[in-house]
Task: structure prediction
Amino acid sequence: MAVRAATDGDSGIPPDAPFMHWAFTQSPYALAIHDRDLLCLRVNDRMCQMFGLTEDELRGRRLTDVLPGPQYDAMERYMRQVLEEGKPAQRETYRRVPGENRERAWSVSVSPLKDQAGRTQAVWIGVLDITEQYGARQRLTMLNEASTHIGTTLDITRTAQELADMVVPRLADLAVVDLLDAVLSGDEPSPGPLTGAVALRRVAHQSIFEGVPEAVVKPGDVDVHPESFPSARCLATGRPVLTGADDPTFAAATGHNPARAATIRKFGIHSVLSVPIRARGVTLGAAVFLRGQRPDPFEPDDVLLAEELTARAAVSLDNARRYTRERITALALQRSLLPQRLPRQSAVEVASRYLPASAHVGVGGDWFDVIPLSGARVALVVGDVVGHGIHASATMGRLRTAVRTLADIDLPPDELLTRLDDLVSRLSAGADADDGDDTENDVGATCLYAVYDPVSRRCSLARAGHPLPALVTPDGAVSFLDLPAGPPLGLGGLPFESIEIELPAGSILALYTDGLIESRYQDIDLGFERLRRALTRQDPSLETTCDYVLKAVLPDRPADDVALLVARTHALDSDRVATWDLPADPAVVAGARKQVAARLARWGLDDAAFITGLIVSELVTNAIRHAGSPIQLRLIRDRTLICEVSDGSSTAPHLRRGRVLDEGGRGLLLVSQLTQRWGTRQTPRGKTIWAEQALPGRDAGSVT
Result:
């Protein structure tokens, strides 16, 4: 065989070879050549098929002469631009080909054809069908967007709505998300497939039509899906179910519900894709995608895309379900640790509110308490544990119990906070020892502790990093008490300071946590000002005051828990308190009993004279024998009858059982048997021993 070598100007291919013709007619591109007047010089068969015209109908004519429309006007503008600039241009367009009912994606290239002098004499147009590549690119784009647009919160309903919003209209004309009731309550659904008829609650839906008119089931309603229904079938098999108008089982499955069948006919729904929502081996519900206005049915690639989108949403929904379960548990724990009802006492009238943060924020550790103290006094407490969740709620319960225990031994506010600070430091150290250097387990808190005495009308307060309490005087003036801040609990080693103020009867103290006044969206000074304005509104009902304060100060979706405690002070009338200063002489005991009996007679409590006389004898005798001056006897007629003996010794007495031959040692035992409760508290000048007994003929908690 002879082989002829190619030389300059000789390609080795005969000039009459048909390759150039074949390249034009057999190219995967739809090709056309237009001259400088935009008249068509030549087109291949693919271009003719795309336009639905013959070559004779196109040749020698402008595109807009035979194909009117804005897209063809735009094509001619591109050709003119290429003719003028001599540079190629490329764009993508989407249109239907005659004879097809679906749009296709096309890549359009317009390039100049130049002579040997470099002058543009014509333009070459190449159009390539890139529908598959475009679809793949769109699917990847949707999946990428889903990673940032689905699961933005830990709210089940919102996450379900985000899935529906993502697929309409890009994948479906209508999308619905139905979940099991157990998911919405945070419970663990049954593992494995769900067989038989299934009851699902509509959580979210979206449509290309405003108001979702195709929906037969409204959000929040429960619908029972028969076993033959596509969504029930996908839950039974754990796999997607694709059906439509050309499927005989589709009409049979929907025929049981006339309203649903009518909707399918009205909106022309012809393709239905049901996908199970499963995560971590648990079935949560079903997502159903439907097409009506879009003529093409779901294809295998659409099924894969719907599966992937649903799987991503399922993980977010399960995270939201688990968060809901933890939140419900934390709320139940917190509410069980908060006062179920505030104790009845005479010192203050109280009202309270506890408002959890919005659902996307974990439950916090806010708490409040009202603790009756000896001598008709009362302690008001508000605190806030750092963090959210069950850990914060459990820590709150421990601190509330600790405050009650410390209050029971009548510590002054600053000393109580010091002891509480030690406890928080030990809790933090214990958490670090159990879990290593884990800052998430650090314990921190703020607290405000106030003690009000209705006899003296004086109030002692101290705070540990807590917001300032508000005071509303009887004339309506509102101020924030200038109370030393003190460090937050848990820092350790730093002192706390308390102040003491006198409050007119009818004054209102407002104690609250920082969630009421602080927000990432507003300055704290604005929060204080809103609270001040809200408290200027006078209302006889403290319940109404609490409601108004929350409404006026808080945003619609508070970002943190809020605890609010409002107390209106009362004063005990002087005729309900009797005080005697006694010398340290055993001879005064009998006289003290007589004076007490006389005062009880004035109060109409003659029936209490005998027992009260015994109590007075024991307490005064102990003060004279074991302590010393100054000795003071005080009787208070409150909801109970209170007897107090103060002396100059700081040594606390203790209860002991006297032996058979002992001449003494039974006094406090006798007092403990004759009274409801008794105790001791330290005073600046010594101590006070007190005892309470029920008023004759009245319950200890009744109003006198």
Notes: The chain has 19 helices and 26 strands. Confidence is low (pLDDT under 50) at residues 1-9, 659-664, 700-704.
